[in-house]
């Protein structure tokens, strides 16, 4: 009986990376890249159009990050499996990826070794964790057990995070309003709320915060 082919959406803002990853995946008889996207917002649209089985999302993309796109896709297409592809061996991103609905987190540096297995694991409904992530999970669990605490929620909402990313990318309030289909007044309200919540003064400080939070690359 022939193996069912997993239909994959691949999203990364670097065409060269997409080409390399596509070569790895298309080389496997049970994996097939059916759509590509160059930013997070396009990834969401492509997923709605093509209904893939699996989305592989780069963490640092324009418009929407991989994490923001993952949250949106988990809401829109609950059956879609999601893998996050990243250059960053970063615990915070890793935990955010799990919270966003991803079933795996693959480092680009070892994608040729790990990605195919991560795809198959995701389709079996199994999490894929690189070795450093396993250590992070154990350490995090032990720390929380020692403190008797739970992981705090994010300070800003998902929508505020979307606005923050676009502010940090240099978009005007009008451009942000057009991109997110909201009014300029709403954009300004989100910006004011973020400044107050984060204790920041201006756009420059918001941009620095966005870099630290991994929403844009420095």
TrEMBL record:
Residue span, HTH luxR-type domain: 149-214
SMART domains (UniProt xref): HTH_LUXR, REC
One GO molecular-function entry: DNA binding
Domain of life: Bacteria
Keyword entries, A-Z: DNA-binding, Phosphoprotein, Transcription, Transcription regulation
Pfam family, one: Response_reg
Domain annotation Response regulatory: ranges: 7-123
An annotated GO BP: phosphorelay signal transduction system
Residues bearing the modification 4-aspartylphosphate: 58
Name of the protein in its database record: DNA-binding response regulator
Species annotation: Phytohabitans rumicis
């Amino acid at each position: 009986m022939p193996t069912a082919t997993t239909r994959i959406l691949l999203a990364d803002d670097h065409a060269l990376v997409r080409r390399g990853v596509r070569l790895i995946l298309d080389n496997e008889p049970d994996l097939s890249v059916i759509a590509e996207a160059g930013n997070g917002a396009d990834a969401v649209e492509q997923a709605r159009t093509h209904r893939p089985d699996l989305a592989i999302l780069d963490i640092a993309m324009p418009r929407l990050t991989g994490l923001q796109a993952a949250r949106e896709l988990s809401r829109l297409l609950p059956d879609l499996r999601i893998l996050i592809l990243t250059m960053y061996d970063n615990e915070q991103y890793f935990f955010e990826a799990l919270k966003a609905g991803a079933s795996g987190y693959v480092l680009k540096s070892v994608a040729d070794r790990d990605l195919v297995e991560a795809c198959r694991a995701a389709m079996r409904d199994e999490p894929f964790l690189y070795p450093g992530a396993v250590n992070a999970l154990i350490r995090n669990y032990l720390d929380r057990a020692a403190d008797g605490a739970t992981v705090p929620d994010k300070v800003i909402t998902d929508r505020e995070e979307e606005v923050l990313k676009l502010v940090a990318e240099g978009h005007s309030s009008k451009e942000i309003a057009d991109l997110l289909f909201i009014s300029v007044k709403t954009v300004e309200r989100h910006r004011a709320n973020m400044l107050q919540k984060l204790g920041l003064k201006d756009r420059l400080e918001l941009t620095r915060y966005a870099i630290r939070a991994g929403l844009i690359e420095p």
